[in-house]
Amino acid sequence: MLLGGHPLISSLGEVHRLSLAAIREDGPFRCTCGESVRACPFWQGVLAKLQEMEGTDDAGLFQKMATTNPAFLSWKSAEGDTLDEPEKKRFYPLELNCFLLLIGSSALWSVVGTFSREVGLNRTFVSNSLKVFEAVRRAWGTPIVVDSTKNPARMKGLYLMDKARFRALYLIRDGRAVTNSRMRRMGMPMEYCARCWIWEHRKQRLALLTVPKDRVWWMKYEDLCRNPERELSRVCAQLGIEFHPQMLDLSRPRHNIGGNPMRFRSSGTGIELDERWKNELSAEDLRVFERIAGPLNRRFGYLD
């Protein structure tokens, strides 16, 4: 959202949810401006440009141009990420696609996609996402587009299809804060949450193995909260643009979809560091976290 305050950047939120957001009007699926995607001037401008690009006047184009495998979305859950086991089996296995993405060969991924339905579909989802990005650029004149979808396979697919323009911003947060938040929201024990945190980072780092290091930028959540101007200036410099103070003004309209509910509560310049874990985690929770995830947390620079 902060990046989206720059006049040359469109921050879109979790674009993999677009097809679902286009037909849902309840809370999590609304645009951050407060409107549904069907009523939001920003997204309707994108739709008009996408229709022009595709040579159609189909008002349901967002729904038809899926930007992710349906296995990652749910018609039942507000979070949009869970399916019943029988439903999952309709869209899995994804192992072949993930294996090819891990190898990181654009040519091999393309060739296999010609005879593997699974791989071909996933290439289509990525291609559709890139078309949405281009429609945003043309509709609103923003050369830089930010997709906040947190899926390693999708991220790697975007890289393989558009290597020249791809950049990854890897935002890290103290694992104790992340696990504390998950324990609070899900009611799960620390052992489960710590293992989930490790697995998520392993997947991300595996996906990034064949991405050039200069295409991956790292940032700590805590640094961003403590000095947002410095951290955003650093990102802007890497993008070859100047920092704009309005990036810090969260009261300005944004047009993200999906993501943390805090996007509906943002106002002014209230960027606050959340360190509730320091008071909420028990000594036993901290011992369990240290046993399972302490080494990785320290590798990320969290030494205390």
**Shape call:** globular
- Poorly predicted parts: 75-93
SSE succession: EHHHHHHHEHEHHEHHHH
Cα Rg: 20 Å
User: What is the average per-residue confidence, as pLDDT, rounded to a whole number?
Assistant: 89
Q: Helix fraction?
A: 40-55%
Number of strands: 4
- Individual helix count: 14
Beta-strand residue fraction: 5-15%
Based on secondary structure, the structural category is mainly alpha
Largest sheet: 2 strands, parallel
Q: Which strand order do you get reading across the main beta sheet?
A: 1-2
N-end to C-end Cα span: 29 Å
What's this model, at a glance?
By secondary structure, the protein is mostly helical. It has helices at 18-21, 41-54, 61-64, 85-91, 95-103, 106-113, 117-140, 152-161, 175-186, 190-207, 221-226, 228-239, 277-280, 283-299; strands at 9-11, 144-146, 168-172, 216-220.
Molecular structure report:
Helices cover 49% and strands 5% of the residues. The chain has 304 residues and is mostly helical. The protein has a domain at 3-166 and 256-273. Strands 1-2 form a two-stranded parallel sheet. The radius of gyration is 20 Å and the shape is globular.
What's the arrangement of secondary structure elements?
Elements: E1 9-11, H1 18-21, H2 41-54, H3 61-64, H4 85-91, H5 95-103, H6 106-113, H7 117-140, E2 144-146, H8 152-161, E3 168-172, H9 175-186, H10 190-207, E4 216-220, H11 221-226, H12 228-239, H13 277-280, H14 283-299
Parallel strand pairs: 1-2, 3-4
Helix pairs in contact: 2-7, 5-8, 6-7, 7-8, 8-10, 9-10, 10-14
